[in-house]
Amino acid sequence: MEKTKKARLGGKLRGIRELLGVFGAFALIFVLLSVIPGVSEKFLAPSNLFNIARQITVNIVLACGLTMAILIGGIDLSVGSVIAISGCLVGGLMTNNGLPVYAAIAIGLASGAVFGAVNGLVISRTNIPPFIVTLATMYVGRGIVRLYTDSSTILITDDVFSYIGSGKLFGVVPIQIIYIVVLCLVTWFILNRTKFGRHIYAVGDNEQAALFTGINVRRVKLTVYVLVGLFAAIAGILNAARTSAGLYTSGEGYEMDAIAAVVLGGTSMTGGVGRLAGSVIGAMIIGVLSNGMNLMGFNSAWQYVVKGAVLLIAVLIDYFKKKRDR
Questions:
Q1: Is the pLDDT of residue 5 over 70?
Q2: In whole angstroms, what is the distance from residue 241 CA to residue 234 CA?
Q3: Cα dihedral sign for 113, 118, 120, 125?
Q4: Is 2 exposed, middle or buried (0-12, 13-18, 19+ CB in 10 A)?
Q5: What is the DSSP-derived secondary structure letter of residue 126?
Q6: Strand runs labelled E in the chain
Q7: Residue 205 CA from chain centroid, whole number
Q8: pLDDT at 10 over 50
Q9: What sign has the CA pseudo-torsion 52, 281, 232, 305?
Q10: Is 92 helix (H, G, I), strand (E, B) or coil?
Q11: d(CA 242, CA 90)
């Protein structure tokens, strides 16, 4: 009993140290951008900080879902396609079919859940790696959204929908901050205060052991991927509301930013280890880094190089950490 308590305490302390390390990286990047001549003035401007908050909303929402997927030892590369599908579907239903905004949003959310269910059913009932399954559905999704939009932009003129994406509380606070807080709290509650959350960690830590203890592993995987699809649909709708348009190209590359945020935040790619707080801080790092590179005049090619390097470093850190703990 005493050994178990010590092990749990050691695990908690190790988790706190990891979170502090991730937050330290965020603080370092923030401070550097705050002191670089010619950048600091623009970076610290209130309008730019609010812009960062708006930009990281989508990545944090995706990171909430992908944290659960990676915790069970999975991955979902189709979230970017779901962003495009949900945003264009909602826009098309309102603009072309005259549906009320909330009915269109409900259908958009359902599309994400259905997409996630397809991923979850295939992954939970076959031995096909999640990487391959979601890579395939990513391409299917991109094809569907191009067929639906005829590869054209859908303009959205609904005022309520625009407020959902770019409104401000009390005329100051971006409404996206409310979405982030609510969705993060929901995800945190699922992972830390429910039996389902404990099952997520158990499946990721040791799937066979989870089966032997009576956990319905198939159901856990299916539910996780439905949630990932739902979170991706939320991100897509928020993105469409912010831009007042359904873009068939929206969401391209977003899956990489979200995966980088989750891994950078300390969630192990092999599953079973990770915290939502780390993923959120990881998303903040990616957001601040992207904003800083824009302010410094980095072109998109170099931004891809830097983000790829950050993801590789995060994966290598996870690898050596796992090797050390063996």
A1: no
A2: 11
A3: positive
A4: exposed
A5: S
A6: 154-155, 168-169, 173-174, 245-246
A7: 21
A8: no
A9: positive
A10: helix
A11: 13
Q: Which of 123, 258, 90, 277 lies closest to 203 in space, CA to CA? A: 123
What digits encode the pLDDT tens for the residues 91-125?
999 999 999 999 999 999 999 999 999 999 999 99
3-class secondary-structure state, position 217: helix
Residue 174 has what DSSP assignment?
E
β-bridge mates for residue 154, sequence order? 246
Q: Find the distance separating the first CA and the last CA of the chain, reported in whole Å.
A: 23
Q: Where in the chain are the domains? A: 41-325
* Three-state DSSP class for residue 294: helix
pLDDT one-digit tens code per residue, 275-308: 999 899 889 889 888 888 888 888 888 988 988 8
Which among 309, 293, 216, 205 has a CA at the least distance from the CA of 260? 309
| 50 vs 235: CA distance, rounded Å | 18
State how far the Cα of 142 lies from the Cα of 248, in Å rounded to an integer.
8
Mean pLDDT of the chain: 89
Q: Identify the CA nearest to 232 among candidates 315, 71, 119.
A: 119
- Residue 39, burial from CB neighbour count under 10 angstroms (0-12, 13-18, 19+): middle
Closest CA to 59 of 304, 284, 271, 278: 284
> Residue 286, Cα to own-chain centre: how many angstroms?
12
pLDDT, tens digit, for every residue of 171-217? 777 888 899 999 999 999 999 999 999 999 999 999 999 999 999 99
Q: What tokens appear for 316 in the block?
A: 């290598």
Domain 41-325 is found in CATH 2.60.40: no
For 11, residues 6+ apart whose C-beta sits below 8 A from its C-beta are: none
DSSP 8-state secondary structure symbol assigned to residue 155: E
Length of the chain: 326
Instruction: Tell me the two tokens of residue 219.
Output: 């159901």
